[in-house]
Predict the 3D structure of the following.
Amino acid sequence: MSLQEKVMAEMKAAMKAKDSTKLEALRAVKSAILLANTESSSKNGLSEDEELKLLQKLVKQRKESAAIYKEQGRADLAEPEEKQAEVIESFLPEQMSEAEIEARVDEVIAKTGASGMQDMGKVMGTVTGEIAGRADGKTISSIVKRKLS
């Protein structure tokens, strides 16, 4: 079952349940998928990696919006954004814990022989490629910086 099919099935369930927040989040996902499909040169649609990146981007947008609303004291606007982020996250694979990410970073540092901040790009590229979709780039970056500094 493709991501688009899963989203459509969830949309039907959300409509029946009259869950407007969930429906709004699912419509945003569907819209983003359709837009990406039209921009994509591939006739097969989006690859699994592209779908993951798309979902992560949507979650990140929602969380950033929620943070801005909270800063401005608008909890009434932040709450729906957070709920939408949760709905979209349900389509992402299980996220890795910081300890798991840290262990993976240690392995890559040992394997590549990285010794300082000048090797950060090499380490980041390898780690991000290996655990794509299962960890936030900001978290990976902070762990790599801490380990290499």
